Each structure stands twice: as C-alpha cells, then as structure tokens.
Amino acid sequence: MAELGFLRDFVLIFGVAIGITFLFYHLRIAPIVGYLIAGVLLGPSVLGVAKDVASIEVLAEIGVILLLFLIGVEFSLNQLLRMNRKMFMVGFLQVFLTTGIVTVIAIGFGASLPQGLFVGFLVTMSSTVIVMKVLSDRGETDSPHGRLTTAILIFQDLSIVAIVLLMPVLGGKSGFSFFEVVLKVIFALTFVVTVIVVSRYLVPLMLYRVVQTHNRELFLLSIVLICFGTAYLTSLVGLSLAIGAFLAGLIISESEYGHQAFSEMLPLKDIFSILFFVSIGMLLDVGSVLRNPMVIILAVMGILIIKFMVGALVPALLGYPARISVIVGVAIAQIGEFSFVLSREGLIYDLISTDDYQVFLASAIITMVFTPFMIQGSKRFSDVTEKLPLPREVRLGRFHEEIIEKEYLKNHVIVVGFGLNGKNVSKVLDASRIPYIVLELNPETVRFEKKRGIPIFYGDASRESVLTHVNLKTARTVVIAISDASATRRIVELTRRLNPSVYIIARTRYTNEIDPLYSLGANDVIPEEFETSIEILSRVLHRYFIPVNEIEKHIMEIRKDGYEMLRNVKNKYVLFPELKQHLPDTEIETVRIKSGSPLEGKTLAEVGFRYKFGVTLLAIQRGKETIQNPSGNTQLLSEDIVILIGTRGNIAAISAMMLPPESQ
User: How many CB atoms lie within 10 A of CB 528?
Assistant: First the structure.
C-alpha cells in the first residue's frame, strides 16, 4: 500500500499544479510561486496531505539535474569561455563580498568562524532555476543585465565545487589539512576539464551513430544516459549532481544535436521541476515560523538588502551603467536551490541548529516567492534610480561590453529540409546575404553541411521547442521543403500558431495538398506537379522552335491562372487580405535596378511608372535607407530596389526595363 500512498501524493501534487498554473496564468504571476505555496499547504506542517515527502525529494533532485542539463544545452562552451573577463569578475566579487559581509554579521551575533562562513555560503547562492526561468519567460536572457545575471549565477554554481569540499573542514569532522583540500579541489577541476575535452569528441560521434538509426527512443535514451551518466561521474569526485548535469548540457550544446536534445528533454524537466519546488515548500515547518515571526522578517529583509546592495554595487564598480546594476542586484537578491542542499549538509556537521534551519528555510522560501515580482518591478526601480543626482560616470557607466554571446537571428528565414529545394533556397539566401537557419533530420547531411559552414542543425521542425530554439517568433519567412505530406501539415499548423505574422511557403508533391495547407495557414503552396507540367511544356515548345518570348508568355499565363485558382482558397493569413479580396490580380513586387538600365539616372516623373506602365511605386530601398513616398524629382540609381504595386503583367513589363539592354 506504500506504493499507492506515493501515487496518491503524486496525483495530488500534479492536480494542484494544474490548478495553480491555470490560475497564475490568468493573474500573470510566475507559477513557481504557486508551487512553493502548494508545497507548504500540502506538507506535513499544514494540511499533512502528502505523506511520502522523502520519495518526492528524490524526484525533485532529478528535476534539478534535468533543469541544469537544459540550462547547459542552451549555453555554448566556446561562448562561455569567451565571455568578457569583467563578467566573470562580477561573479567572483559578488560571491566573495556577500560571503564576507554575512560572515562578519553572523560572527557579530555570536556565531563561530566556521558557522559564520557556512551562513555566508548559504546566503551567497541565488536561484538559478527561478531567475533563469523568469528571464527566459520575459525574453531578457540575451539583454545586458541578463548576461551579467547569468554570469553571476554560473559562477555561484561553479563555486559550489569548492564549498562542498570545504564542508568537512568547516564541520571539524575531517582530518583534512588545508593543503589536502586544495589538492582535492584541483583534482576535481582537472577531472571536470578532462570530462569536457573527452566528451566533446566522443559525444558527437556517439550521437551521430544513434541518429543514423532514425529511432527517436534510442536518441532520447542516449541523451538521458549522457545527462545522468556525467552527473554520476562528477559526483564520484565530490562534485554535485547538478554541476555534472550542467557540464553534460554544455557538451551537448557543442554538437549539432543540441536543438533536438533540448526538445526531447524539455517535458521531463517541466514535470520534475514542479516536484522540486513543491518539495521545498513541504520542508517548511509552519509552527517554527509562527514561533519566530520577527526573526524571519528581519532575516528576509537582511538577505534582500545585503544581496541587492552587493549585486548592484559590484557591476557599478566595474563600470556598468546604474540601470543595469540595479536590475542585476534585484535579480540575484533571493536564496538559491543549492543553499537547501548545503543547509542539509550543515545539519549533519552541526553548523546550523534545527531552529535556525527552519528560520533559514522560511526566509529562503519567502525570498523565492518575492523574486518574480521583484524582477517584474526592477525596471521601474531602475528608472527611479536613474533620476537620482548621480555622477554621470555612475549613471551611464564606463564599460561597454563586447557582444560575444550567441547571436539571435531576427528577420531570418527558417528552411525546413535540406534536399535539392532546400539547398537551392539556402544557396540563394547565402548569396543575397539574407540570414537563415536550416533544420534537417538526416544526420549525414547535417554533419557534412555543418563542416562546410552551413547554419544547419539536427531537429524535428514539427516540435514546438525546436522552432522556438531557432527563434521562430522573430523570423520573417519559413520555407518547408520536405516530401512528407503529413509532417508538412503539422509544421504549417504549428508555425502559424506560434507566429501568426510569419510568411509560410510550403512545397508539396501533389495539387490535392494545396487546399489543406492553405487552410492550415500557409501563404504560398508550390506543388511539384504544377511546376513539373510547366517545365514539360517549356521543353516541348522549345523542340518546335517556338520563340522564347512566346514560351515565357504561355508560362506566365499558366502560372497566372494557377495562382488565381489558389487565391480563391480562403486564407486569412495572406498579406493584405482586403486588397487581395477586392483586387485579386494585384501584386506587390520588389525589383532591383541594374547598372546600365535605361531607367538609371532618370527621375520618377521621367519614367512615368503610373501613366506609362500602370504600376505605382511605393518606396525605394537605397542601401540602408528607405525612401517612402518618393517625389517625382527623385532620381533612380543603380542597385536601387523599388517596391511596386500593380498587375503581374504590368510589373513584368517595367521589370524588363530595369536590366541593361543586352540582358533584356
């Protein structure tokens, strides 16, 4: 029956999680806050509904491992190593100063030096889980304050290595000398570097063999093995499981399979992360809180003030603007999840009493609950700070960081599939200097093209997390160039749902797939049957020596008929829906004026776009400048890109004049 009791607790936790997530979604509050509160309510000190807390804590530990693994996947080891040294200095100074200040305060209240250091370590740690999730949800991970906050959190997590190894010394229950501790730290770091170096060569080779099987279950099992295997290996040398998982994520991020690995592991991480936050809430003894309310209030205020002041002071001292410094200080002002692990170790080594442990636990949970609200209001607080009479150097900062982190694509093209069509599209995009990214499920193709410098990744575009990873929300166009009809439909539907404004071009083999794809949200559908018939007709007419211009006229008429037919499909996502409805023959095209064109050097009045050719010129793109509503005196120059509106035939006529005479 014990198993049934655990299952009952499991059902209760996720039932409450569903209700909290739904409620907090409408209240626009981070659900993490609700999970902590739910843990307190379900725990033994309040309702006592959940009985098997120990089993839930084990699952929560798995949640931390998965979370740190995915954080590692989202990072790049090369980019991490190339981070500006000042960002790492911010992390070091934050840990050093916070630990020092808290240690002095603790000793002032009667603690011994080991106990003071231990309390300093507890307070120093911030919550990587909460802060990274809130920043990610707000889209601020790549902002200046997001990068600084991340650097501090990473340094804190890595410093756990030394802190864990110092615990026996602080507890006075180990015969280790300081020299032996230093040697152990060096050994642990050497082991970590060895794991990373070896894995960077072995893991991509292993995953390449796995994905060749096209077996999703095998791929998932391999990723899980790498995650937990690396965590276990690092634990053998005295490091935490979470650090090992983070390193495993960094290793995966260096391969071309990072996007797909992130997609496969994301659902598992979400499930176990909920258990982690609920389990933390269950550890709280509400009775102890009620017995020491003033102590807890003072502890919470002290933690928030000290961590905010140090977190804001360090970036400011290194030359960052006051606004960024304030936001960073607010973001790291809470207690972190690693502190809960350390606090349990402190109980074992008598570095903290049971009552003090409950005070710390209550204070930590309260700071965690406050964190999403504090981050949400941090920008307003920073705006107020900027209005203070601060010196110009403090307000604006002296340091302008070099942007070396992962470049987030914007207005790019996502090409799904790297067959013949995908290659041709990518080749033209590359030649035109249009940013793009390719998703492909053939491991041989990914591996080969990656070496050639193509921005290609192994990933299933029918999965939401994969499309999110390639920045679908900021993409301008998605080209689906695969032969799988059902997968194409899924990708079109998912793409349209995630980004209502993106332009979707889908390739299909048969004309009977046109209507379903349009109804799912595609803007253009190119059936192979249709284009093949045009090519056949063109070659037949060539054999009978029909003039080229007549062949092109026939092809244009066929395409026109076809596209008129396609326009009749009800498609709410087509550009300018009202215009298309009332003027079905109207097109908007962009044409480049080549050197030697008869139009080069002429004014718009001399060309007479509207009166002579029946088209309207909307704008001119000249380098980085856009000339909107140009006047009749505006002169056309070589390499100008003109934006025209008119019928397809009229635009084709004027387009021919934009080429040099020998090309017409």
Answer: 15
Instruction: Give kind and range of the element (H or E) at residue 204.
Output: helix 178-211
DSSP-derived letter for residue 322 is H
Residue 21 counted as domain residue: no
First to last CA, the chain: 85
Rounded distance between C-alpha atoms, residue 489 and residue 467, angstroms: 15
Mean pLDDT score of the chain? 77
**CA–CA gap between residue 228 and residue 381 (Å, rounded):** 41
- Tokens, residue 15: 């039932």
d(CA 36, CA 46): 13
Both 531 and 617 in one domain: the answer is: no
Q: Per the structure, how many domains does the chain have?
A: 3
Domain boundary among 575, 598, 625: 575
Structure letter (DSSP) for residue 193: H
Q: pTM for this structure?
A: 0.58
Query: Can you give the residue range of the structural domain that contains 105?
Result: 64-396
Residue 230: name the closest of 251, 204, 254, 248 by CA: 248
- Give the model confidence (pLDDT) of 34-63 as tens digits: 787 888 888 777 777 766 667 766 766 777
Residues composing the chain: 664
Q: Under DSSP, is residue 392 helix (H, G, I), strand (E, B) or coil?
A: helix
Domain boundary, last residue among 516, 540, 575? 575
Q: Kind of pairing, strands 641-647 and 586-592?
A: antiparallel
Together in a domain, 571 and 589: no
Tell me, yes or no, whether 54 lies in a domain: no
Q: Which tokens is 533 given?
A: 């018939």
